[in-house]
Design a protein that fits this description.
This protein is an all-alpha fold and about 170 residues long. About 80% of the residues lie in helices and about 0% in strands.
Length: about 170
């Protein structure tokens, strides 16, 4: 919870997308560690929980006097939020096709993430990180950074997990 507050607080930078990324990752990890079946219903409830957690934290921040692009966008209503997401997706697409190097880095990084995601046996922390990265790709506008650093991080987590399984 402290992570969500630090990431989302207006006085500390107010990263609304970051709040959703961490909330989704932590909720998915919670589901996996408790062996909750990953049914459509449970995943939808977790996604809803992440969104509600983000909205509650932004609401508390705004009520406490915080003001940021996040509080202003949410205060302007669902249309403003939709417009902001559409803008970020447009910027992400522009970043993806900005050069052949960017396209290659993002494509290879996403392929690595898919490969890690398909490996067995499953690891709860790796799976939660993959969920957080998927959310980050949806709500942030820097796909090269998210995909490449995410692939490196997930590979490290996966190899660490496999090394500890062998011992």
């Amino acid at each position: 919870m402290l992570t969500l507050i630090v990431v989302g607080a207006s006085g500390l930078g107010a990263d609304g997308g970051g709040v959703l990324v961490f909330a989704a990752g932590y909720l998915f990890l919670w589901l996996r560690l408790r062996n909750v079946p990953l049914s459509v219903r449970n995943v939808a409830l977790a996604a809803g929980g992440a969104i509600v957690a983000g909205l509650v934290l932004v609401g508390i921040d705004a009520a406490a006097g915080g003001s940021s692009h996040v509080t202003r966008t949410l205060g302007d209503g669902p249309g403003a939020l939709g417009g902001e997401l559409a803008h970020r997706w447009r910027v992400s697409l522009d970043g993806y096709v900005s050069s052949w190097q960017a396209t290659l880095i993002i494509t290879v990084s996403i392929a690595v993430l898919v490969w890690i995601g398909l490996r067995r046996p499953r690891d709860a922390v790796v799976d939660a990180t993959l969920v957080a990265l998927a959310v980050s790709l949806l709500v942030n506008d820097s796909p090269r950074d998210v995909a490449s650093y995410g692939a490196i991080s997930c590979a490290a987590l996966r190899f660490w997990s496999e090394a500890h399984r062998v011992q």
